[in-house]
Fold:
Amino acid sequence: MKDGIGAPGIKALRQAIREHFRTQVALARAVGVTPQAVSDVLKRGKRVPAEWCVKLEQATGIAAHAFRPDLYPQGDKS
Structure:
């Protein structure tokens, strides 16, 4: 699956891996899930789980809005 296809936050999730975590395993550790859970979200183009968004924002500086714009409106400080 290419960036931009699938759920809106997939592109941001791939960016977080590329620029901050380097691996899906490191991202999984940061949000407290299994590497398989991260792989599943990426492969299937699922929405980034809501419980990951704030942890990802804290770890990367990428706004939670980028991962789940439906839950975190632009400009909302979570």
